[in-house]
Amino acid sequence: MTLLCCAMLTSNTAAFTLPTVTVTNRQHQTSTASRSQIHMSSSPAVLDRVVIEKKVSDKKKQSTSNNGDASWEVRIYNDGRNTREHVARCLVQITNLSEIGAYQTMMQAHQNGIAVVGRWYYEQAEMYFEQLKSKGIVCDLKPASDK
Questions:
Q1: What is the pLDDT of residues 30-45, one digit of tens each?
Q2: How far is CA 117 from CA 3, 38, 60, 90, in A?
Q3: Which of 60, 62, 108, 130 is in the most buried spot, having the most CB atoms within 10 Å?
Q4: For the whole model, what pTM was predicted?
């Protein structure tokens, strides 16, 4: 949890005043501390990490489950036009693969003639396919077959 205290210098005194601070800990107990209860020390304070709970509506769950689980795959092919470095760089920049993952995928396509870049939902797979294609990478977009 990030706790921000803003110290304000009052115009009529030379002292700092601290606003009231509300703190919620992991047990979801809320407490309010006034400036008389906040003790300043020279050591840093240790604060609990904020836990944010997200609630997903039933409609969103249903719409996600209807799309299938990562049911489209983008595949790249070995070609004589693109350098291996160019292909790996495009995979890192476009699909956010790690450099090692991009290198391994590129080498698989180089040695075997084809490599699966990844499986995504249709919209994301289509976006990656179009971007790779615009960079001159020979690729295609196919429904994933469960193996």
A1: 555 544 444 555 666 6
A2: 42, 54, 27, 11
A3: 108
A4: 0.53
